Amino acid sequence: MKNKLLAVLLLLPMGLVSCTHPTKPLPPPTPPPIDDASNVPIGAAQTYVGSVGVHSAVFVLTWQADGNVVGHYYHPDNSGVILKLKGKNTAHGELVLTEYAADVQSAILTLKKSTSHGLIVWSGKMHNTDQHGSHVLNVSFTRKADA
C-alpha cells in the first residue's frame, strides 16, 4: 500500500507540469505607434503648412496606430485640386507617402522629421511618376508641436 501511495504522489506533480510546447504561439507584441506628435491622438487629422517646389501647400494627415498615414494636400492658389496621400511612417522620423491624382499614382514623397523652435518639420523630395516626367521637387511642411 505504501508503494502505491508513493507512486501516486510521484506522478501527481508530473501531471500538473507540462513540458510540451503550446500548439499556438503567442502573437508578437504590437510595437507602439510611430507618431510625429507627443500630444495629438492617433487617428486625429493634423494640418501642416508648407510648399511643394515653389508653390505653397496645405497638408492634412492622419496618423494611424499601425504606422500608416492617410490624407491629402492642395495648393491654396490652385483651388479645386486635391491630391490624395497614402503612406507609412517607416521608421521613427521617416515618412514615405504616395501621391494620387484622380486615383492614379502621380508621385512618391520621401520625408524626414526634424524639430525646430517648437515646430515639427517634415522635409524631403517629391519624385513625380506621372505623365509630367520624372521631376524631383523639394517638399517641406510644418506645424506647431503642441497643435
Structure description:
The structure is a single chain. The chain contains 1 helix and 8 strands; from the N terminus they run αββββββββ. By secondary structure, it is mainly β. The chain has a domain at 45-144: Lipocalin. It has an 8-stranded antiparallel barrel.
Quick recap:
This protein is mostly beta strands and 147 residues long. The protein has one helix and eight strands.
Task: Please describe the topology of this protein.
Layout: H1 2-16, E1 45-52, E2 55-63, E3 68-74, E4 82-91, E5 94-101, E6 104-116, E7 119-128, E8 136-144
Antiparallel strand pairs: 1-2, 1-8, 2-3, 3-4, 4-5, 5-6, 6-7, 7-8
CATH domain class of the domain at 45-144: Mainly Beta
Tally of extended strands? 8
* Helix content bin: 10-25%
> How many helices in DSSP terms?
1
For the record, give the distance between the C-alpha atoms at the N and C termini, rounded to a whole number. 79 Å
Any idea what the radius of gyration is?
A: 26 Å
Give, in order, the helices and strands: HEEEEEEEE
The shape is: globular
Note the main sheet: 8 strands, antiparallel, barrel
Q: How are strands sequenced across the largest beta sheet? A: 1-2-3-4-5-6-7-8
How much β-strand is present in the residues? over 45%
Instruction: Return residue spans where pLDDT drops below 50 for at least 5 consecutive residues.
Output: 12-18, 30-35
Based on helices, strands and strand pairing, what is the structural class?
mainly beta
- Look at the structure and give the mean pLDDT: 80
CATH domain fold name of the domain at 45-144: Lipocalin
> Please, what is the CATH homologous superfamily of the domain at 45-144?
Quinohemoprotein amine dehydrogenase alpha subunit, domain 2
